[in-house]
Specification:
Blueprint lengths: L6 H9 L19 H14 L7 E5 L14 E4 L5 H11 L4 E7 H7 L1 H10 L4 E6 L2 E2 L5 E2 L23 H6 L6 E6 L3 H13 L4 E6 L11 H5 L4 E5 L8 H6 L3 E3 L5 H8 L5 E8 L6 H4 L8 H13 L42 H5 L1
Parallel strand pairs: 1-2, 1-3, 3-4, 4-8, 7-8, 9-10, 9-11
Antiparallel strand pairs: 5-6, 7-11
Helix pairs in contact: 2-7, 4-5
The structure holds thiamine diphosphate and iron/sulfur cluster.
Length: about 350
């Protein structure tokens, strides 16, 4: 029999998602922008993990990097500047079965979105958060961002940025309940892909900072690291990044780092010279907020409809009531029942939950 006509083969083939199945509209980033590499790595991740497009959501704020949801054929939410995280948390809380990713820029996350970022780390919801760090505001044409290094000239700091940059790694590592932190660079795509996979597989809030080139506004900004691979420190571990022979030939500066060691992770992330690339920290034991708040009781649509019905019945204006008593202008209002029935947490076993039809009679 021709295998191409085998029904089981066809069914299996039909369910397999190819790279193209995740591709959305054509990206409009500048050529050479690091966002292209990050998109490719994420497309590969979706394909390798066979994420159902209808169960995958990309949420973003505003910025060049935040255009991501348009370029993926999954669900997407291009939200407001700095607000990607609360939107993603809302989605995850209501639909824990969805694979939720957040793409955010250094301005989006570390400037206007800082409060959401800090609290999202503490809530530790099962989200994969990719922060594209190009050290500048790209979309609005080159203003200094909190991660711009001191001295960087921009439209808002023509004489050079006055302050030391905020370090998103040490900041994340300093928040209660931190559970996954990694750093990648757009110009090392194999490592980027490996780290994105590890971040996705971690159950909890995975924060991955990707050093991202913006050739339009800072064309030579990362050249020092590109031209001298010894300025990069690859963090390898049996439970972390694995460097194959090809990678090890270029990046000779490697160190074995156990991702369970939080203090060492903090030291490595604040190294003045070397740029650590790999998994800095991972702790699978931190509880996720959606698990902490999971309801022990499930409410069927019928139960919810019954409770709502009863609540609305208290305010129903029945046209026949009062028709025979036109002479009484102000009939006494019926006493409003207290409404414990709206307390869904209390469960269905409440005396007032008789069927709505009985309640009306
Ligand atoms: C409330 C609000 N404030 C300011 C802006 C203007 N704005 C849009 S994107 C952006 C910064 C984007 O920088 P970043 O997050 O680093 O992303 P990039 O463009 O570099 O990828 C700013 C300030 C806005 N859209 N909304
Ligand atoms: S301005 Fe910079 S960050 Fe934005 S698309 Fe162009 S290269 Fe990328």
């Amino acid at each position: 029999m021709n295998p191409f006509l085998d029904e089981r083969w066809l069914a299996a083939h039909d369910e397999y998602h190819r790279l193209e199945d995740y591709q959305g509209s054509t990206p409009r980033w500048c050529s050479g922008c690091g966002d292209h590499t990050i998109l490719t790595a994420l497309l590969r991740l979706c394909r390798d993990e066979q994420l159902p497009p209808e169960k995958t959501v990309f949420v973003s704020g505003i910025g060049c990097s935040s255009r991501f949801p348009h370029y993926l054929k999954t669900y997407g939410f291009h939200s407001l500047h700095g607000r990607a995280l609360p939107v993603a948390e809302g989605i995850k809380l209501r639909r824990p079965d969805l694979h939720v990713f957040v793409t955010t820029g250094d301005g989006d996350c570390c400037s206007i979105g800082t409060a959401h970022w800090i609290h999202a780390i503490r809530y530790n919801m099962n989200l994969t958060v990719i922060m594209h760090d190009n050290h500048i505001y790209g979309l609005t044409k080159m203003q200094a961002s909190p991660t711009s290094p001191r001295g960087l000239k921009s439209n808002t700091s023509p004489r050079g940025a006055y302050l030391d940059a905020l370090n998103p790694l040490t900041t994340t590592l300093g928040v209660a309940n931190v559970s996954f932190v990694a750093q990648a660079a757009d110009w090392i795509p194999e490592v980027l892909h490996q780290l994105l996979s590890a971040a996705y597989r971690h159950r909890g809030f995975s924060f991955i900072r990707v050093l991202q080139r913006c050739p339009n506004y800072l064309p030579t900004h990362f050249d020092a690291w590109l031209q001298d691979p010894n300025r990069i420190l690859l963090l390898t571990h049996s439970q972390g990044l694995q460097a194959d022979a090809a990678l090890a030939r270029i990046y000779r500066n490697q160190c074995e780092h156990d991702p369970a060691d939080l203090n060492r992770a903090r030291e490595l992330s604040s190294h003045p010279e070397l740029m650590p690339i790999g998994i800095l920290y991972r702790n699978e034991q931190v509880p996720c907020y959606e698990d902490v708040r999971r309801r022990t009781q499930t409410f069927t649509p019928e139960m919810i409809a019954r409770v709502l019905d009863e609540e609305f019945d208290q305010f129903t204006v029945e046209p026949w009531v009062g028709a025979a008593t036109v002479a009484e202008p102000n009939p006494p209002a019926p006493a409003r029942a207290t409404s414990p029935s709206l307390n869904l947490e209390a469960g269905p076993a409440q005396p007032r939950l008789e069927p709505a039809s009985e309640a009306r009679s």
